[in-house]
Amino acid sequence: MKAIQIIDQGIVQLIDLPLPQLERGQVLLRVHYVGFCGSDLNTFKGLNPLALMPVIPGHEIGAVIADVGADVPSNFIPGMSVTVNPYTNCGQCAACENGRPYACEFNQTLGVQRNGAMATYIAVPWEKIIGDAAISVRDFALVEPMSVGFHAVSRAAVTDSDRVLVFGCGMIGLGAIIRAVRRGATVIAVDVSDEKLRLAQKLGAQYTINSITENLEERISAITDRRGADVVIEAVGRSETYTASISAVAFTGRVVYIGYAKEKIPFDTQFFVKKELDIRGSRNATPADFKAVITYLKTGDCPIDDFITAVIPPEEAQSALEHWSKNPGDVFRILVQF
I want to staple 153 with a disulfide (CB 3.0 to 4.6 A). Which of 179, 224, 232, 271 is the partner? Predict the structure, then answer.
C-alpha cells in the first residue's frame, strides 16, 4: 500500500508498506482523505521538536471501516465513514489521573510522535473511532483540527458576555471562532491575510483586524471601549502574537495559548500580576469537543468548501508542502486523497 513519509527536513517520499495486520480490539480503516496540518508543515520545515523522524504524517482523518478484529463492538460495521481520535494516554501520569487524558504527559499523536494516517490503510483501537452517518468521509478530515479550536474556547470558559479575540485564522483558529460565536460571544478575528479574515467574518466574527495593514492596538482599543478583550486565544505560535495577547487582554481577562512557539519568548511579566490574568494552555481536544464539531457540521451552516484549499494525490505531497511553506497565507487545508 502507498504511504507518505517525511524523511528529513524538506524531503518527502512515497513508500510502499505491507497492509496492517488487525490485532484484537482493532479496526482496519481504508483511508480516503487526510489533512496536512500545521504540525506536519513544521515537521517538513524541521521546526517540530516533538516529531519522530522519519515519520508518516497525518492525524486529520476521513476513512471508511474496511474490517474489524476480534472483540470489537458490533456497532462498528464495514462501510461506515469515520474519523479517529489521534491521541494516546498512559493512564498513570498527572494529567490522566486528573481526568484530562488528552493532555497526557506521554501522549503520542498520530503523525507526530508515531507514524500517522497518510497511508492507504491504518489499524487503530476501536475506542478511537468516531462515526456519524450524517458526515461525509471527506468532511470527517476537518473534524480534528476544528475540535482543537473548540477545546480552546472551553478552556477559556467563554460565555455570551465575553469579547473574544482570536489571533490566527487557520483551521484551528477558525474552530475557535466558530465555537465562540456559537456560545454567543462577540468575536474579533486577527490575521495577516484578508482572505482568511473574510472567511472568519463569514463564520460570524463581528470584527476583523489585519495586523499588517491596521494598527492592532488602536483597533482593539476602539472595539473594546479601551478595556481590552475578555478572552484572547492565540492560535499562531509566534513570539509577536504571544506577547500581543498579553497586551490585548483586559484586566482580569483570560489568555489561552494553542500555538507552539518555536523560540523562547521574553515577557514583561508585570502585566501577569497587574492584570491578574488567567493564562492557560490548550492541548488537543476531548471526545466532547469532537462531538460538538460534528453537531455543528450537521447544522449545514459551515461553508466547508471554503476550508479546503486543494485536494491532491499522494504523489503531489512534496510540491504541496513546498508551496505551503513559501505561501503560508494562501492555504487553509490541503487534503491528501488516497
Answer: 179
According to DSSP, residue 55 is labeled: B
CA distances from 175 to 50, 81, 92, 225 (A): 23, 22, 30, 26
194's enclosing H/E stretch is: helix 194-202
The pTM of the full predicted model, rounded to 2 decimals, is 0.95
Instruction: Determine the Cα–Cα distance for residues 321 and 29; give it in Å rounded to an integer.
Output: 25
Does 120 score more than 90 pLDDT? yes
Residues 182-236 have pLDDT tens digits of: 999 999 999 999 999 999 999 999 999 999 999 999 999 999 999 999 999 999 9
Q: 270, 275, 239, 236: which is closest to 254 by C-alpha?
A: 275
Quickly list H helices, 93-192: 94-97, 137-140, 143-155, 171-182
Cβ neighbours for 116, distance < 8 A, ≥ 6 positions apart: 34, 55, 56, 57, 58, 59, 86, 109, 110
Rounded to 5°, angle at Cα 205 from 202 and 206: 110
User: Residue 77 above 90 pLDDT?
Assistant: yes
Residue owning grid cell 478511537: 128
**CA–CA dist 321, 241 (Å, integer):** 24
- Separation in Å, CA 168 to CA 1, 254, 322: 36, 17, 21
* pLDDT of 113 over the 90 cut: yes
Instruction: Provide the pLDDT for residue 260.
Output: 86
Beta-carbon contacts of residue 23 (< 8 Å; ≥ 6 apart)? 69, 123
Grid cell 481504508 is found at: 30
In whole angstroms, give the CA distance from residue 334 to residue 312. 7
Rounded to 5°, the CA angle 300-171-86 comes to 95
- Which residue's C-alpha cell is 495586523? 211
